[in-house]
C-alpha cells in the first residue's frame, strides 16, 4: 500500500562522475588494513545517474541499468542503499524515511574508476535533497568517508589531492581541460586483491608525496607534461594480474597518446591525448585492435555529484 506522498519533490536525479588517479602513491598497510595514499584525483565526464524517489517508511530498494548491470548487488550490500540508510540513521527521522533508487550506470563495475563510490555519493546527495534534510557539504563528506575511501571525492569532483586512505581532500591548483580515452577491461579487478598483490610485490617508498612534476604540469595546464608525469604504484600489481593490459597501454602509447596509465586498481586503461580529434582517432584504433572490451572518450576535470532534476 502506497503511503501519502510527503511535501517536496517526488524524485531527485543526480549525476556523478568517475575518477582517474593521475598519480597514486601507496604506502605500507596501516593497522586497520588500509593503505596510506598520496594521490591526485581528476573527475571526468563519464557519469552514472542516481534517481531517488520516495518509498514507504523504512523501505529501501535499488534497481540498476546500463554498464555491468548484472554485476551490481541490489541487496543491502549495494553502496547506494548503504549510503541512504546511513544518511537516514544519522540525520533523519529515520522511521519515516524510505527510498527507491534507480541507478543508470555508464562507469564500469570493478574498473578502477570508482563507479561504486560514485553511486554511493550520488545516493547521499539525492536522498539529502529528496528528504529535505538539514545536512551540509561537510557532514555529507563525513558520511561519504564512512562509506569508502573514494566516496568523498565523488561528491566534490574537480582535481584534488587525496591523503589518508584517499578520503582526505584538498583541491589542486590545476588549469586546463584534458581529453582522455578510456579502455575498459574484459574482466574487472578486485581492489583488495590488487592491494594484496602490491604488498607482496614491493617495499613502498616513504615518505608519501604526490610527484612535483605532476603538480607543476597541472599548475601550468600542460597536457604533454601531464602525460609524462602520470604514475600509479598499483599498476605493476594490476599488470601482473591481467598481463594483457600491458599490450593495451603500449598500443595507446605507440599510437601517440601523451600518457597511458592503469586507473586506480584497474583494469581500465586511461590515455591522455592532445584533443578531441586525437581522442576520436585513438578510440577507433583501440576498438579495431580488439585489445579491450569497450572504449569511451571523456574529459576532465568536471564537478562532483550534482542535482540535474
Ligand atoms: O575504501 P574502499 O571500500 O573503497 O576500499 C576497498 C578496499 O580497497 C579496502 O577494503 C582495502 O582492501 C583496499 N584499500 C586499501 N587502502 C586504501 C583504499 C582501499 O587497502 N587506501
UniProtKB/TrEMBL annotation:
It is an enzyme of class 2 (transferase). The active site is at 19, 150. Residues 78-158 form the GHMP kinase N-terminal domain. It comes from the Bacteria. GO terms for molecular function: 4-(cytidine 5'-diphospho)-2-C-methyl-D-erythritol kinase activity. InterPro entries: GHMP_kinase_C_dom, GHMP_kinase_C_sf, GHMP_kinase_N_dom, IspE, Ribosomal_Su5_D2-typ_SF, Ribsml_uS5_D2-typ_fold_subgr. It catalyses: 4-CDP-2-C-methyl-D-erythritol + ATP = 4-CDP-2-C-methyl-D-erythritol 2-phosphate + ADP + H(+). Residues 216-290 form the GHMP kinase C-terminal domain. Gene3D superfamilies: 3.30.230.10, GHMP kinase, C-terminal domain. Pfam families: GHMP_kinases_C, GHMP_kinases_N. Pathway: Isoprenoid biosynthesis; isopentenyl diphosphate biosynthesis via DXP pathway; isopentenyl diphosphate from 1-deoxy-D-xylulose 5-phosphate: step 3/6. ATP binds at residues 108-118. Its EC number is 2.7.1.148. Catalyzes the phosphorylation of the position 2 hydroxy group of 4-diphosphocytidyl-2C-methyl-D-erythritol. This is 4-diphosphocytidyl-2-C-methyl-D-erythritol kinase. It comes from Microlunatus panaciterrae.
Amino acid at each position: 500500500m502506497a503511503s501519502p506522498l510527503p511535501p517536496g519533490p517526488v524524485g531527485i536525479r543526480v549525476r556523478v562522475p568517475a575518477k582517474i588517479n593521475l598519480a597514486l602513491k601507496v604506502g605500507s598497510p596501516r593497522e586497520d588494513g588500509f593503505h596510506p595514499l598520496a594521490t591526485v584525483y581528476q573527475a571526468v565526464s563519464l557519469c552514472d545517474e542516481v534517481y531517488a524517489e520516495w518509498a514507504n517508511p523504512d523501505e529501501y530498494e535499488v534497481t540498476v541499468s546500463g554498464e555491468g548491470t548484472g554485476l551490481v548487488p541490489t541487496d543491502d550490500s549495494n553502496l547506494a542503499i548503504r549510503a541512504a540508510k546511513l544518511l537516514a540513521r544519522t540525520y533523519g527521522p529515520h522511521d519515516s524515511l524510505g527510498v527507491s533508487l534507480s541507478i543508470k550506470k555508464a562507469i564500469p563495475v570493478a574498473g578502477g574508476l570508482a563507479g561504486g563510490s560514485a553511486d554511493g555519493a550520488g545516493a547521499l546527495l539525492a536522498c539529502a535533497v529528496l528528504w529535505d534534510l538539514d545536512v551540509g557539504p561537510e557532514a555529507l563528506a563525513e558520511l561519504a568517508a564512512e562509506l569508502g575511501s573514494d566516496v568523498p571525492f565523488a561528491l566534490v569532483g574537480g582535481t584534488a589531492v587525496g591523503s589518508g586512505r584517499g578520503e582526505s581532500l584538498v583541491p589542486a591548483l590545476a588549469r586546463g581541460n584534458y581529453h582522455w580515452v578510456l579502455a575498459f577491461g574484459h574482466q574487472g579487478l578486485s581492489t583488495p586483491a590488487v592491494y594484496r598483490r602490491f604488498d607482496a610485490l614491493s617495499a613502498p617508498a616513504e615518505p608519501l608525496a604526490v610527484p612535483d612534476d605532476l603538480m607543476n604540469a597541472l599548475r601550468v595546464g600542460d597536457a604533454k607534461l601531464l602525460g609524462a608525469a602520470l604514475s600509479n604504484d598499483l599498476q605493476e600489481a594490476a599488470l601482473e594480474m591481467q598481463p594483457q593490459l600491458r599490450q593495451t597501454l603500449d598500443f595507446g602509447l605507440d599510437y601517440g597518446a601523451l600518457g597511458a596509465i592503469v586507473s586506480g586498481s584497474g583494469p581500465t586503461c586511461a590515455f591522455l591525448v592532445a584533443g578531441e580529434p586525437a581522442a576520436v582517432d585513438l578510440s577507433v584504433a583501440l576498438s579495431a585492435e580488439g585489445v579491450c572490451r569497450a572504449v569511451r572518450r571523456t574529459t576532465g576535470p568536471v564537478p562532483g555529484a550534482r542535482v540535474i532534476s
